[in-house]
Write a structure and sequence with these properties.
The protein has 307 residues and is an alpha+beta fold. Helices cover 27% and strands 30% of the residues. It starts with a helix and ends with a helix.
Length: 307
């Protein structure tokens, strides 16, 4: 959990993932000697702020996006959404500009034309273009983890747990997922052209809904906005059924992920979204059940061996 808390504290809104990429590269370089197989790292020029780890002879890639929702400061401390953050009057935001560190609060302004606008409360004008994110507040109980950015720091954390024992596979730390995609296409193409990969698992966090509950296991998504190829999905479900790992099946009409971006590309990639469910979505208080998180790690380990 210490690693997860560190990941949450790193500011990494869409378009500003450099600090997160640097942290992950350093973490992998420092710890890979203790892993079962030491991966080859691909990052830097041509990869923007994304990172790929390749282990052994890979057949399947895990995609985990490293960006988050947030806000861009516009004119006169107005706020513009990055992705789809929940809007809660008075919630704490942090960032930095040319004059130093910033801790501010979001203010919802009711306009005369019945529209609303967003502003931050601060004693001076913040530099235009400054990025603000939710203030970290990591809370752990015996049952739950509550924090900003469980989506998708937990997906990243799970991928790093799987990396410790992975024999063959690839792990992709992608960018821009919360604001429309942007890196998955060229990252997938790199893996397809250089390693022949054609299948992926999407390590991300889904939502608690009418059909997906806390404490019932990791969710295997049968569809959201995108629809995975049925034969690949059936293979994953069958492997899950042959284990004792708790899982639940998700069927939704909306929502998307790196898998959606893979499906919209011209690459022959099969994909499936598999993740623990959370409530308080896109707020500073996202909450995930620990047993669902444990099931997520175990299912990923099994699938990376058997797919």
């Amino acid at each position: 959990m210490k690693l997860l808390e560190e990941l949450v504290a790193i500011r990494s809104a869409s378009g500003d993932e450099g600090n997160m990429c640097d942290f992950l590269v350093d973490y992998v370089q420092t710890n890979k000697a203790n892993w079962k197989v030491q991966p080859t790292l691909h990052f830097g020029d041509g990869f923007q702020d994304a990172l790929i780890l390749v282990f052994g002879q890979p057949k399947t890639a895990i995609f985990a996006h490293i960006d988050s929702i947030g806000f861009t400061v516009g004119y006169d401390n107005q706020l513009i959404r990055i992705g789809g953050p929940a809007i809660i009057d008075g919630m704490s935001l942090v960032g930095s500009d040319s004059l130093g560190e910033i801790e501010t609060e979001l203010m919802v302004i009711e306009n005369e034309d019945d529209t609303t606008s967003l502003k931050c409360v601060f004693e001076r004008t913040i530099d235009r273009g400054t990025i603000l994110t939710f203030k970290p507040n990591f809370i752990q109980t015996d049952t739950f983890i509550e924090s900003p950015y469980m989506d998708n720091r937990l997906g990243v954390w799970v991928a790093l747990q799987v990396a410790k024992t992975l024999n063959n596979g690839a792990i992709v730390f992608s960018t821009y997922e919360e604001h429309g995609g942007g890196s998955v296409g060229f990252l997938g193409r790199f893996l397809h052209e250089n390693y022949g990969l054609k299948q992926a698992l999407i390590s991300d966090i889904t939502w608690v809904t009418k059909g997906v509950e806390h404490g019932k296991g990791v969710a295997i998504s049968m569809r959201d906005q995108g629809i995975p190829r049925r034969s690949y999905l059936n293979k994953i479900i069958q492997i899950a059924k042959e284990t004792t790992i708790d899982f639940q099946l998700e069927v939704e009409s909306a929502g998307g992920s790196d898998g959606t971006m893979l499906q919209k590309s011209d690459l022959p990639f099969d994909w499936c979204f598999i993740g623990a469910p959370e409530d308080n979505v896109h707020t500073p208080h996202e909450r995930v059940h620990k047993s669902d998180l444990a099931a997520m790690i175990e299912l990923y380990r099994v699938l990376m061996e058997k797919l």
